[in-house]
TrEMBL record, chain A:
Transmembrane segments: 12-32, 80-100, 112-132, 144-164, 185-210, 258-278
Taxonomic path: Bacteria, Bacillati, Bacillota, Bacilli, Bacillales
CDD domains per record: TM_PBP2
This protein's name: Sugar ABC transporter permease
Subcellular location: Cell membrane
Main localisation: membrane
Keyword Hydrolase tagged: no
Coiled coil: none
From TrEMBL, chain B:
Biased composition (Polar residues): 32-41
Protein name (Swiss-Prot/TrEMBL): ABC transporter substrate-binding protein
Spans annotated as Disordered: 32-59
InterPro entries: Bact_solute-bd_prot1 (IPR050490), SBP (IPR006059)
The keyword Metal-binding belongs to this UniProt entry's keyword annotation: no
Gene3D superfamilies from the UniProt entry: Periplasmic binding protein-like II
Secretion signal, residue range per the UniProt entry: 1-32
SUPFAM superfamilies linked: Periplasmic binding protein-like II
Automatic annotation (TrEMBL), chain C:
Keywords: Cell membrane, Membrane, Transmembrane, Transmembrane helix, Transport
Main location: membrane
GO annotation, cellular component aspect: plasma membrane
Key word Transcription present: no
Name listed for the protein in its UniProt record: Sugar ABC transporter permease
Topological category with respect to the lipid bilayer: Multi-pass membrane protein
Pfam family, one: BPD_transp_1
InterPro entries: MetI-like, MetI-like_sf, UgpAE/MalFG_permease
Family matches, as Gene3D superfamilies: MetI-like
Organism: Paenibacillus oryzae
Length: 293, 551, 300
């Protein structure tokens, strides 16, 4: 019996490793393809169909040169960094606060509020009223126009609320007996034991701000405040509008697919580098669970 | 104890990051404030100054000496912004204008691709700028719609304050016909082509020169000859003898004009109708349309057309396909040939321009590409507090002192005078050291001529030669002018009918070409279009065309 | 009301802590929600939200009467249901499989790499799909014997749903699994010990400990997914489809987009958005009700 079970277990593990290895390969493939493509020669890249394991044609950094020749790119990198850090700090504070109070069983209006909040996930007034709101609040052309409206993502709030609900009530009870108020419970008990969930939400919020470009395109008029994504979009998309006004811009268009791949590398690499550091907290989350047991 | 310590560091780290972020944020939020050294002119002294020089046609300061004033202007972006310059204020011409007139322009430049939404929101928020450039291109009802909606002023009512513009406008009848609406209104200060000379066609039909030599054939002139050449290309091993756009139709009526039907293309926006002898026609109802689809169906099924043509659904995809050495022929900007020559590793690959195919040798075509002589130009907001200033500033663009500089810029080192008295941008522009595209260089020098020298931006004499090939057999007789206007009621009827029809036709034409629908269903297809009330939309258009013709 | 007052008296702090959150939702969500009245207007930017002409339910009637309404509704539902059926469980399975791995380095590598596709922009993803499914692309060549012909896969109406859903799984599986991995890390290890003592094998542990441990996360995610049912990834469809396969590929949002090119009608598109939202609300409320009834978990 026991050996049968062991055999089965071993077989499962082998299959599991193979399967996960395959999944990894399939998921790695497009990024690898992108990296190879971003170093390829532009014409051969355009003619190439299918998966690329190595750059085609002579290796060239032409695409990166074009991308980094853009005078706005470094400034926009810095802007994005500010928006991401600012947005994440604001976001996680607000989201955690909301998730905490709405997860307290003794907070009577919690469910009603939750319903009203979920409602906003489904219904929104669209672009125009939001634009007028930003204008009337005097947030136009300022970083707050990007940060404040995105302060709480309902999805994140729900996730975090579920996590806080899962914190054993005994912890809270004992703190209460020591005379702690709700704020202290939130800061000293709930936050520390929910590190893993907080880390996940921090990652989600950061990625959201990193990729965000549409609000910035609506609310910022000053080029010096543009985030990276807008500059990259400009590099990519421009030329389309010019195509109707004359053929003189054809040269740059030939480079478009090369540039496309380069912009992906430029815009994803930084966040990919940050990920392992956040991932560490997932592992810590596991550890805390183990110690508790 | 240990755990407490850990908690402390966690909290501390949070605090630190908050402080860092906070200060960073504050820095960006407070970092921007005005730094103008010149004094702003008061409304009173400005008005006085303007009145004193009303009617003047010469280049002059519009603001008292030592003072400055700011106008706001909405204008789409350009690829030269962000690469060559930071904003529209950085073009040599705009800097020069500001120096000469004392008027500073505060540009509102939306991110490319979001112009339409941006304009709609600007208008619905009620905070208009003083001037609009090219807003008609993205407003759903065009430049005329902006006037109808009361966003901009009727320029015709202010002609007495626009002496230079009035002179240019009255230079030719075509300028007046195209500038006024049916009701005698004028939505913008039109932009003219100098001496009413058409720009050369810059899209063309291109064919592989090396392949023609290889199969030992002449450049084809008729559709039958095209079939033979493409078949020969295929036999010679070429995978994609002919590239077709993802909607099954080549750009700008190229290639289909010889079958006697076409579409109107107004700077990117396509209108479905054309006209024959003053009567509005719709291509899918014409015999030539069926002939075209049957021909494409045959070519597609025999592998003469790129089997993946459906993927050419964006400018990027198209441009990626052009230099592909497996391609035999295509409709593309002629200038792309220079790039292919430069970039393709196989130095044998070369293209020549070939004429529009026709049914019988010597036929003329009537719907080619249309370069317009008169375009809609600057528009002035109905809410501007500086109407007189805006009018005088805009009028200066038509002043004899400004026209030349607005075309070639204030720096004489960028262009040269040719023996025939015309001008041409020089190597500093075309072969600039930094490798910027010529069109970007030109834009950064002279961005907004209101009276445009024709073929100003053509970079290569070879292009002009090729373009003549197309223009010589095309008389544009079937063209409908872009300045034709529908009133509110008419455009509502037109949109409600044509939106669905165009969608239906686009789906069906692809299915016919790919053989998904068989041609015995073709009559039912035409019948369906009629049942969707195409005649109503055509009647509406006919009315507008009649009004235009009687201008 | 009185109960509420007593509750407030007792937990003042919680009420005050919630205040900024409530303020945020009122200002940034409920105020602009006034914009939905555009759905009942012939909206024009010039006259704005409060000055545009009222047309009642005309925009909705136009939508329901449009020639392809049934087709796009059917396609939208088909894509969302398939995505729910295959795309929803995928990240859960991935998380469970990863959970069985003890080799830490391998686990982390798989985890990090599996979410890579999420970071590629839709334009790149679509470009890759176009290349791979072109008439000479690797996937086309691979499945040609099954199909019995070689053709551009994106020109075959019967292939679109498969392509769309498969690539969706690949794109989002890794990133979505993060949430389940975090949930798994919180499953009480005491329960595993207890199960082991009872003689449960790994499979039994998975069924009786692991899955129940993350079931509330799963249910919440499912309810949320149902709410977004009709919002198919618009940009991706737009970049992948073509008029030859409208039959299976044209969805509500792309159809509206094409209609909007000519008329740019904000009122009309708001009406369609509102229709999507109402359906989403119905789904989310009923899913929540069912879940409340049969399990402990609920969203509100």
């Amino acid at each position: 019996m026991a050996s049968d079970r062991n055999m089965g277990r071993r077989l499962f593990l082998i299959c599991n490793y193979i399967l996960l290895g395959l999944i990894t390969l399939i998921c790695l493939m497009p990024m690898w393809h992108t990296l190879a493509a971003s170093l390829s020669s532009p014409v051969e890249l355009n003619a190439n169909k299918g998966l690329m394991f190595f750059p085609v044609g002579e290796i060239t950094f032409k695409g990166y040169e074009i991308v980094f020749a853009n005078p706005s790119i470094w400034k926009s990198y810095l802007n994005t960094l500010i928006y991401v850090v600012g947005g994440t700090v604001l976001g996680i504070s607000m989201t955690a606060l909301g998730a905490f109070t709405l997860s307290r069983s003794y907070f009577m209006p919690a469910n009603t509020l939750m319903l009203l909040i979920v409602f906003t996930m489904l219904f929104n007034g669209g672009m125009i009223p939001n634009y007028v709101l930003i204008l009337k609040l005097g947030l136009f052309n300022s970083a707050w126009a990007l940060l404040l409206p995105a302060a709480i993502n309902v999805f994140h709030l729900i996730i975090l609320r579920a996590a806080f609900q899962g914190v054993p009530a005994a912890l809270e009870e004992s703190a209460k007996l020591d005379g702690a108020n709700e704020m202290q419970i939130f800061l000293r008990i709930i936050l520390p034991v929910s590190k893993a969930s907080i880390a996940v939400i921090v990652l989600f919020i950061a990625v959201m701000h990193w990729n965000s470009w549409f609000p910035a395109s609506l609310y910022l008029t000053d080029r010096a405040k543009y985030p990276l994504q807008i500059i990259l979009r400009e590099i990519l998309i421009e030329g389309n509008t010019n195509m109707t006004s004359g053929g003189a811009n054809a040269a740059i268009s030939i480079y478009k697919s090369l540039i496309k791949y380069c912009t992906v590398m430029v815009s994803t690499l930084p966040i990919l580098c940050v990920y392992p550091f956040i991932q560490k907290y997932f592992a810590k989350g596991v550890m805390i669970g183990a110690i508790k047991g | 104890m240990n755990q407490k310590n850990k908690r402390m560091t966690w909290n501390k780290r949070m605090t630190w990051s908050t402080i860092v972020v906070g200060s960073l944020l504050m820095a960006t939020l407070t970092g921007c404030s005005g730094n103008s050294s010149q004094q702003k002119a008061s409304q009173e002294e400005l008005q006085q100054h303007l009145e004193s020089q009303e009617g003047s046609t010469s280049l002059r300061r519009l603001v008292p000496e030592g003072k400055t004033v700011t106008l706001k202007a909405w204008r789409p972006t350009h690829s030269s912004i962000g690469t060559l310059m930071e904003s529209w204020n950085d073009t040599l011409f705009q800097r020069w204008m500001e120096e000469q007139t004392g008027v500073h322009i505060d540009w509102i430049t939306p991110v490319s691709g979001t112009e339409g939404d941006n304009l709609a929101m600007l208008i619905s928020s009620g905070e208009y700028p003083d001037l609009f450039f090219d807003a008609g291109l993205v407003y759903p009802t065009g430049a005329y719609g902006l006037l109808k909606d009361g966003v901009v002023i009727d320029v015709a009512k202010h002609l007495d304050k626009l002496p230079n513009y009035k002179t240019e406008l009255e230079r030719s009848s075509v300028r007046q016909i195209e500038s006024y609406s049916d009701e005698g209104e004028m939505a913008s200060l039109s932009s003219f082509t100098q001496d009413d000379v058409q720009d050369a066609t810059w899209y063309g039909i291109l064919m592989r020169k090396d392949m023609l030599e290889k199969v030992n054939m002449e450049a084809p002139q008729t559709y039958d000859e095209w079939y033979d050449v493409l078949t020969a290309f295929k036999k010679a091993g070429l995978e994609k003898p002919y590239l077709l756009n993802s909607d099954g139709f080549p750009k700008l009526n190229m290639f289909i004009g010889g079958l006697g039907f076409g579409y109107m293309n107004y700077g990117g926006s396509v209108q479905p109708f054309y006209q024959v002898d003053g009567k509005v026609r719709y291509a899918p109802l014409e015999e030539g349309f069926r002939t075209y689809l049957e021909m494409m169906n045959k070519w597609y099924s025999e592998g003469l057309i790129d089997q993946d043509f459906l993927s050419l659904n964006s400018i990027n995809a198209e441009f990626a396909a052009y230099p592909d050495p497996r391609t035999g022929s295509m409709v593309a900007p002629i200038s792309v040939v220079n790039v292919i020559r430069e970039l393709t590793p196989d130095k044998n690959v070369d293209y020549i321009a070939v004429p529009h195919p026709v049914v019988n040798k010597g036929d003329k075509i009537h719907v080619g590409t249309e370069s317009r002589l008169v375009r809609s130009g600057m528009q002035i907001s109905s809410k501007t507090k500086n109407l007189d200033l805006a009018l005088q500033w805009a009028d200066l663009f038509y002043s004899p002192d400004v026209i030349h500089i607005s075309n070639y810029g204030p720096d004489e080192s960028y262009y040269e005078k040719l023996p025939d008295g015309t001008y041409r941008f020089n190597e500093k522009v075309y072969a600039n050291e930094d490798g910027f595209a010529a069109i970007d260089m030109i834009t950064s020098i002279a961005d907004a001529p209101a009276v445009v020298v024709s073929n100003r931006t053509v970079t290569d004499p070879w292009l002009l030669e090729q373009a003549e090939l197309y223009d010589s057999i095309n008389d544009n007789a079937y063209v409908i002018s872009s300045s034709l206007t529908l009133n509110d009621e008419e455009s509502k009827t037109y949109n409600s009918v044509m939106t669905n029809i165009i969608d239906y036709v686009e789906e069906m034409q692809i299915k016919f070409i790919m053989g998904i629908e068989k041609f015995d269903k073709y009559d039912a297809f035409v019948e369906r279009i009629r049942s969707m009330n195409v005649e109503t939309a055509m009647a509406v258009y006919q009315k507008a065309l009649d009004r235009y013709n009687s201008r | 009301m009185r109960a509420l007052y007593i509750n407030y008296k007792r937990h003042k702090m919680v009420y005050w802590m919630t205040l900024p959150v409530i303020l945020y939702f009122v200002v940034f969500h409920y105020l602009p929600m006034a914009g939905v009245i555009m759905a009942f207007q012939n909206f024009s930017p010039k006259t704005g939200i409060f000055g545009s002409e009222w047309v009642g339910f005309q925009n909705f009637i136009d939508f329901f009467n449009s020639p392809n309404f049934i087709r796009v509704l059917k396609n939208t539902l088909a894509l969302s249901l398939l995505d729910l059926l295959f795309g929803f469980p995928a990240p859960i399975i991935l998380a469970l499989l990863l959970n069985e791995i003890r080799a830490r380095l391998f686990k982390r590598t798989v985890q990090t790499i599996s979410y890579l596709p999420y970071f590629l922009s839709t334009a790149i993803i679509a470009g890759l799909i176009h290349d791979f499914t072109s008439s000479t692309g690797p996937i086309t060549t691979m499945i040609a014997p099954l199909l019995g012909k070689t053709a551009n896969l994106l020109s075959l109406p019967e292939m679109f749903r498969t392509i769309f859903v498969t690539t969706n799984i690949w794109q989002f599986m890794g990133y979505n699994s993060i949430i389940y991995l975090a949930a798994l890390s919180r499953v009480d290890s005491e329960q595993y010990e207890a199960a082991k003592i009872d003689g449960a094998g790994h499979w039994k542990q998975c069924i009786h400990v692991t899955i129940p441990g993350i079931s509330s996360t799963i249910i919440i995610m499912l309810i949320l997914n149902l709410g977004q049912m009709l919002n198919v990834n618009f940009e991706k469809v737009l970049l992948l489809y073509n008029s030859a396969i409208y039959e299976t590929a044209d969805v509500i949002s792309t159809y509206i987009y094409r209609q909007g090119i000519l008329s740019h009608n904000y009122g009309y598109s708001t009406a369609v958005g509102l229709f999507n939202s109402v359906i989403g609300l119905l789904l989310i409320v009923s899913a929540n009700y069912v879940s409340k009834k049969y399990s402990e978990t609920r969203l509100f």
